[in-house]
Each structure stands twice: as structure tokens, then as C-alpha cells.
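#struct-pred

JT: dropping the chains for the assembly here, can someone run the whole complex?
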Amino acid sequence: MARKLMKGCEAIGEAAIKANCKLFFGYPITPQNEIPEYMSRRLPQVGGTFVQAESEVAASNMLYGAAGAGERVFTSSSSPGISLMQEAVSYMAGSELPVVIVNIMRAGPGLGGILPSQADYFQSTKGGGHGDYRLLVLAPSSVQEAVDLMQDAFDLADHYRNPVMVIADGLIGQMMEPVEFKEDRQPCRSLPSKDWATTGWKGEGRPRAIVNSLFLDPNLLERHNEKLTAKYAEMARNEVRVAEYFTDEDYDLLVVAYGSVARVCLSAIRQLRAEGKRVALVRPISLFPFPTEVIERAANKAGRVLVVELSTGQMLEDVRMAVGKDFPVAFHGRTGGNLVTPDEAREKILAQLAAREASR
Amino acid sequence: MKDKLAFGYPEGLTTGGTHYCPGCTHGIIHRLIAEVIDELGVRERTVGVSPVGCAVLAYNYFSTDYQEASHGRAPAVATGIKRARPDLMVYTYQGDGDLASIGMAEIVHAANRGEKFTVVFVNNAIYGMTGGQMAPTTMPGQVTSTSPRGRELDLAGHPIRMVELISTLHTPAFVARGTVIRPLQAVQTKELLRRAFQYQKEGKCFSMVEILSTCPTNWGMPPAEALNWLEKTMMPYYPLGVFKTPEEGVDRAPLPLCGLQDGGK
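RK: done, full complex below.
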């Protein structure tokens, strides 16, 4: 299929349709309104259903019902709306329902602003809702990658029976880039049959389907938690996704950044390398599971790390965990919807290279 | 002579007993729903939804597929199920705290969108599962664990009449209120439930049946006294009848049910 120029939000919607998702439940919030608008237009054309819910609380619970009935389903929102969905996210994790949730992140806290941000990292990866659970969290850095990850997200959700969250900052959602939808795409994971779904019980063939996260017996609930924990450990083993740039070469500084910020950093790094500065980049694509081992290895090779985020330092904590408390880790973050410019990234990288030189 | 079963469990119910308190009417309501499901021949394509509340374990009592919902969200969950699989018969089973308080947005909007599922709303004027706190439907002056001086209207407002509220929506719907405190009223409420499920079976409209129910444990009364209290205190404020049907001409005009005027005695 030919490459097509598409806005990030619309490409994300089309990717869901290409993944055979026929159901969307959502509520308007800037800067992701192009997703529900696109789905409201496209889904009826492919025999699907779009419902504009009365709130994000309701939308996420509609997801619960539809996923529990065995259908592929997704929603999208932006930070304050994602906060409202956390109740259902916890229930869906507890009830092991496969759903895809897109967060086009905007600046917070509170009502914050409508410009890009990466300040929902903690909420996505550490559990924004109650209880012990994990989501698979994927972070694209281009519109094409958003399309590819969206399609994988549905397979991963079905494979693990777990919610998958795709988090992109407002920049990815709002910019236009050429994208290609691959013909004859195969599922990225095996897709087990959904014999647990409430499709109507005929009295035979399978046990009665009960979608539920209630376990009043503490021993049964503990067993359920152990089962979930084992699943999260399997995800951690098998689903690490990371992009490395120049880590095969020699370098004096490792930059760690994800999403659109990683692209800005990469521009600065390419320019600096052309000038003889030795810098490498690791870009986590899966934020849970976090590419801890890759970062540990790449950081040790450099001896110094710079983390760049559109937040006051959230992924930073996972990088610090990966390298240990005595490792020099610097941070540069912008908030409020401000972006990191290539010149700014260059300046921060140069400062770290100078600091490394001075510490020798 | 061959033995013939005169009375037994409906196929729609499991046979293990329930956790409900003595004198609670949930058991009767469960049975009526199961009988209706059986009689309409839809058990194999029925999915129930119970949220947090006394019926939180209802999935153990109905022999159909079932989804548990979070507090108040059953109409949203049911929307998801029904939109995903319109061939299924879907119903929610909600209490008054659940439906009229925390789930107010979900019930009103599901009704207003005309979602083609059935809501069974069990109104016992109190939060049962959590130990008897004041509900939006608690009666004026009614003592609960969070209204120790009785419901004070200047602080808590008047009880919400959900059937009347839903009836104001223009979207076609079947909306009715019954009770099960006397055998005749139970039979009449079963008829309301049958109509509600029948409308859904025909794909016609949203349907909701409110059922006035007792909570002897949290009301602090013996079961028989609770029946009388419901009749004397709740029924004048929550009139029984059909408030809205999808057919022309019936809109917000409660139709008294035959035999209900005298309390079904």
C-alpha cells in the first residue's frame, strides 16, 4: 500500500480499524479529538460502532463490557480523561480484559494545558489505578511507529488478556507524517480463543463465563494476584522494545529519551557526531516493560547518562534504578507544554560532555 | 403414576442458595427474572451485569454468563456488551445507591441513548451491603447509619424518584415500578419484567423496572414489619405503575396496575 500523509490521531484510528477493531467508546478532550471524530466517520463504513460516552468514566466501562463480550475495542483520551478512566483500568487489569487505550498526553497537573507533555509516565507504568497491576505501555516516536504499535497493541492485549496503553505526546497526535499500512500483516503474537468471554452460555462446551475481579476469600485473591504477577513477569521477559542509536560505537555520553523527545535528541546527536562528539541514544519503546538491561549495559559503556523528558523527571527514576544510585545521571526536562528544541538538547549534551571531561 | 415436578428452581437460577439476609426480597426478584428469562427462551443468550452492592455476588445465582461491574457503571458495561453483541439479551441488576447516586450519569445517558438492554432497579431506600447508610432514595426522617437523626430534608434533599426522572426523557423506553411484598404484586412485577425483556427481545427500546424492596436487617425491623413499612412509607411516595412505554400515547402518565390500589391485599 502506498504511503499516505496522515495526521497522527487519524493514523492511530485507521490503524485500529486495520487491526479489525470495530468498536470505539470515547469522550471529547483536546488534543486527541481527531481520533473519536475519525472513528465516528470510519467505523460505520466498516460495520463497526462508535459511541460518544457521557464521560471518560463511562467510556472506559463500556470498553470493559465490550472486551468482556470478546470483541476488540479501544478508546483514546488525553491526560485528565485518562485519570478518570483509572477505575476501569484497574478493573480491566483485575478481570484480565484485552483492551487498547491511547493517551495523547497533555501538560498537567490538574487541568494543566493542552500542549504536549510526557508527564503521565508514572500514571501509565506504575499503575494509575488501585491494586497490584501492570499495563503494557508502548510509546511511539513517529506517526508510522504509532500505526505499527497500535496494530501490535491489539495482538498483545489479546495474547496476554491485559490492557495495553499507547502513550504519545500531543506532538505525535497532531503532526502529519507519511504512513504506510502493511498489507497482509500477521499478528505479532499468538491469539488464543476467547472462550472466557460472555457470549451466551449454552450449558456445555465451556464453563459459564464470569467477567469479574471480586475475590472475597483472601487466599483466592492472593492466588489471583500471583497469577497476574506471573503474567507481568512473562511480559517483562518477552515484550521489551527498545531502539538503540550509535551504541555499537564508542561514546562518552548516553542519552535516554522516548517519544517525540527522542527524535529531537537524535537530531542533536547526529549533528554533534558529525562534529566528532561521541554520543549515543537509547529510546525505550516499551515503557512497561522498561528496557532496564539495555540501559544498564549502554550506560556503563559511557559512564554518564543524560535523561531528557517533557516532565520533571519520571522515566528518570527507572533509568536511575537501571544504573544504580552512584552512577552519574543528569536530567533535562521541560514542562507546561514547552518542547525541547534541538539546540537546547545540543547545549545540554555538550554540558554533560564537558562535565565528564572535567571529572576525569 | 409418574411424578411431576410442581414447583422447583427455574433453569435460569443456580441451586446453591444465596447470601441474602432473612426477609430480604432480592431472592424473590432473582426468581422472577430467572422465570422470565426461561419463559422467553433466551437463557442461552442472556448476559447479566451486577455492580457493587448487595447483588455483587449475583453471578453465583443466575445460570447465565455474567459480568461484574464497578459501582454505578453497570449501564456503561451493559452498553459495551450490547453494542459489541446486539444478539445478546443483556440486563443490569442495580441497587439504589448504585443507580441513583454514584451511577446517576450512566443510567440517565444509557436510557437517553435508548440502549436496548433491561435495567432491574432494586430500591430498598438504603445502602445494604455497606451496612445501612443513607441512600438517595432514603425516606424523609428515615434513620440510617449516616442519618442518625433521620433524613433531614434541608441537608440531604428529598428522595430521588428514578422512574419519574427517566420518564421525562424523550427517547422511547419502557419504564415501570412494581414491588414484591405481596404475592399478587410479585406476579404483577413479573409481568413488568416480562414486558421489559420482551421489548428488548424485539430490539425496541431501553427498559427499566424499579422494584421496591425491603431491607429488614438495615431498617432494623422484623421481615413482616418491613413489608408493612414499605407499604405505608415508601409506596405513597414511589407509586407503582407503568410510567412510559414505547407505544404512542403513554408518556409520564403512571398507569395504575389492576389490584395495586389496595396494596394487593
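JT: nice. Residues 242-359 of chain A form a domain with the Rossmann fold fold (CATH 3.40.50.920). Residues 27 and 56 of chain A are 6 Å apart (CA to CA).
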